[in-house]
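Structure, all two chains, one model.
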Amino acid sequence: MSNFTRRHFLGLATGAVTASVVGYYLFAPSTKQKIVIIGGGAGGIIAAKYIRQADSTLDVTLIEQNTHYYTCFMSNEVLGGVRTMESIQFSYDHLEQYGIKRVHDKAIRIDPIAKQVHLQSGNTLSYDRLVVSPGISFQWDAIKGYNERVSEQIPHAWKAGSQTLLLQQQLHAMKNGGTVIMTVPLKPFRCPPGPYERASQIAHYLKRHKPRSKILIFDANQNFPKQALFMEGWEQLYGYGTENSLIEWIPQNQGGQVVAIDAKTRVIYASEFEDKHRADVLNVIPPQQAGLCAVESGLTNDSGWCPINQKTFESSLHKDIHIIGDACLAGVMPKSAYSANSQAKVCAHAIISSLHGVEMARPSLVNTCYSAVGEEFAISVAAVYRLEGDKIKVSQNASGVSPLNASAAYRKNELAYAHSWYNNITHEMFN
Amino acid sequence: MYYQRLKYTILFSAWLFIQPVNALQTQTPQVSMLVNTCVACHGINGSSVGPATPIIAGMRKPLFLKAMRDMKSGKRPSTLMGLIAKGYTDHEFQIMADFFTQQKIVRYPQPVDKEKARRGRLLHNLYCNGCHKIEGPSELLSNNLAGQKMPYIRQRLLEFINGEDPTTPVMESSLKHFIQNNSESDFDDLIHYFGSHQ
């Protein structure tokens, strides 16, 4: 009798366990949770990877309009002749191995009530959670005479790819002794030290190929990040401060703010007096705002950028939509690729935690911006961030820049580290 | 016999149940939050692609802690790592150390001169192998040099040679001995040897 009972019990136990295991897989939510990510850049790719790797039952789709990605970061070295266009070009094919679906289309508008993304092709994508990492768009009406159509002749090259190539070609075609003019908008904009790194790299190119030329920076700002460091580099490398300087910087109070341009003659009009300056190569960096689909879907505030919950990166304006990277207002974090990478990981974790009904870990973020000033010379700014109350702030005063008057070895090492950063961050994005 | 079968049935079923959430539990969120920010310079799981930012995967825990503490205090020179280290507590260093020490090292190719590496191997056996065993199990407190980034090794050795890093007297005295008996070219050979390990 006891033998029969034990065997019977075993049979029942095995059957029950098997039935419940099979049942779990059969009757588990048949609609997988759909995560959609807009933007295959420094933020979007990382968000997609980290979400999908944390929970492979999730349906993860990345919307990206371009077939290839050109990194805007380090694109200045292409202008400097230090690296090639190919070296900043990457493909998205590797995403397949992670089970991340890719939609090659443009996100036009988000419907936060219906929880749908409308694409340029006319298709729509439904989402349970949406990550918006659209980068920037330009305020085309801010500078008279400059708009999207004009930018095809007068590049901004503030989104990399064909714009970078156009500016490079114009620099190569310029005569020795020509004048390059670069205009810088009022902060905030994508990549705070970027324009000054670009001026440095262009000066590097001019020094080697067209040494009687000059680059003039017309700046709507009164100062810029790592300013003393850049100027130390410019003094050492490009004759800054002498009459043979390859670089001139015109700040706001000396008439640096460009108000209008004439595309046909490549003339800029600067300051309230509309001083005329003619360029042989004109690079206009227009004022910026969040990527268009964010602007057009009610995700931005008066500043033109997206307010968010700084712990979860969820939009302050619409539920279940998270915004990361350049487009969002992330406390004191600058708009950079490293920031986007760091924010994407925190955001991914916040979404996963929310879906699984668990408390998320305390956010911890980092930014490091390297600027390649020239030959064997780079500088950096770095900071560690954490959440204090509801705002992202610097952690334990861990924020600073490279030292002034550092040795040549120090500057050379920082350039090697800059390239190492570039290789590692793109390796994480594209492998 | 029956109890054994029952035990295995229950264990198997339990294993089946935990499959979907396995990925979440291999690394706690608190750990991930701290170490995720290191990838952009030090590579996925601490294996840097290079050319210069060092591999921190597989680092011995006491050495990781020493590195972070000494850079945070400024006793050990660094470019921005000292600044980054300031952003974390000692407890957070422990969490990071525990994570990185477990990571498998991935060594990406470096521009190594095979002839130099061959000569460097002899120098390593004479001067470094006592503490930095490469062909056998390492001594507990010595840093892994095999396949480490060459510019990083060069920088660290120069810091010891030039008296810029007072945190590791044994390295200063070992290198003094090396420099007395060898040339700059020999120094280069040694670095190529370490970089040659794949």
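Residues 150-284 of chain A form a domain with the FAD/NAD(P)-binding domain fold (CATH 3.50.50.60).
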